[in-house]
Recover the amino acids of this structure.
């Protein structure tokens, strides 16, 4: 492998965590490999860890400063710091001290998350983001609307890469007949996802939740009529998407929303608030409906043509995402996907 075609990715989010950041990074690493780019990932599983308060499934590295022992000794490889946690901080410090060029990424609305979960002022969160990402050559973001919001907050050198979907894996299936529409939520079951906006919908429909998190037990007791299915992976997840009549996306703090295009690839229309993420993914009246009245969005989304929804998902390609990522890191790509 040519040294110029190597990249080191440092991330605080990795398997066995189940979230959008892990899904995106995993697919990106696989896609880069198919383009002939060798990715080395430094992640929490390589270190002793401690569970994050309120999120025990997320484990933070206890000895992040030891990440250097896991680095391949190759000074020519590109460096990408994907998260702002302990490992990201250690990598930022290492690169800054040694004047090693690096890029960063902003995958979530970190200031809004910490405000909802811990009550910290949003201004503190954006102050931290400005400090963390300032020395990066480029900061990768997920959508144009996210880039616009971050620019207004004082961040610079932003480039949009986005996310993709494997349309061979996520695909339409034969669907079961039912007397009521099936509404689906997929994602973390926690406060920052605004899931109760879905659970409280006054629509004559069945509701199912795929995912887990710190609020599951409380919400499962409060909404016994809703089926909480826990995590689903592989074909089981594809089945849940394909059987649903509408995916309801309630988050107002996501930056892209991979579940949106996964559902679309299965032919399932989406309903959401008009927020960052959906605004860059949903084609109104074609693949989904956005409305500040979520019930209205769901009612209209149920009328959309599933074949057209599926066709719209073909605009999102992991090869395109990987090529944009490679271009930012000045890695030349001569081959295409197998």
């Amino acid at each position: 492998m040519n040294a110029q075609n190597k990249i080191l990715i440092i991330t605080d989010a990795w398997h066995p965590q189940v979230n959008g950041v892990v899904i995106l990074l995993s697919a990106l690493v696989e896609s880069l490999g198919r383009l002939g780019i060798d990715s080395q990932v430094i992640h929490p599983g390589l270190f002793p860890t401690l569970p994050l308060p309120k999120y025990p499934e997320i484990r933070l590295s206890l000895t992040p400063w030891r990440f250097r022992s896991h680095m391949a000794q190759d000074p020519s490889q590109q460096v990408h710091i994907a998260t702002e946690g302990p490992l990201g901080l250690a990598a930022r410090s290492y690169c800054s001290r040694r004047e090693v060029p690096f890029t960063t990424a902003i995958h979530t609305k970190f200031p809004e998350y910490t405000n909802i979960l811990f009550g910290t002022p949003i201004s503190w969160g954006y102050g931290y983001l400005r400090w963390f990402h300032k020395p990066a050559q480029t900061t990768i973001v997920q959508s144009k609307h996210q880039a616009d919001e971050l620019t207004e907050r004082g961040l610079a050198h932003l480039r949009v890469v986005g996310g993709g979907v494997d349309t061979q894996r996520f695909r339409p299936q034969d669907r079961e007949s039912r007397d009521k529409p099936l509404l689906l939520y997929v994602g973390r079951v926690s406060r920052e996802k605004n899931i109760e906006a879905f659970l409280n919908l006054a629509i004559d429909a069945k509701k199912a939740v795929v995912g887990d998190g710190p609020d599951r037990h409380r919400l499962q007791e409060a909404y016994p009529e809703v089926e909480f299915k826990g995590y689903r992976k592989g074909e089981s997840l594809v089945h849940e998407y394909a059987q649903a009549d509408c995916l309801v996306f309630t988050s107002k703090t996501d930056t892209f929303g991979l579940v949106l295009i996964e559902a679309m690839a299965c032919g399932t229309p989406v309903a959401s608030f008009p927020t960052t993420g959906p605004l860059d993914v949903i084609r109104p009246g074609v693949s989904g409906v956005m409305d500040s009245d979520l019930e209205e969005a769901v009612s209209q989304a149920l009328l959309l043509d599933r074949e057209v929804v599926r066709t719209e998902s073909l605009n999102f390609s992991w090869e395109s995402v990987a090529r944009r990522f490679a271009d930012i890191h000045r890695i030349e790509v001569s081959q295409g996907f197998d």
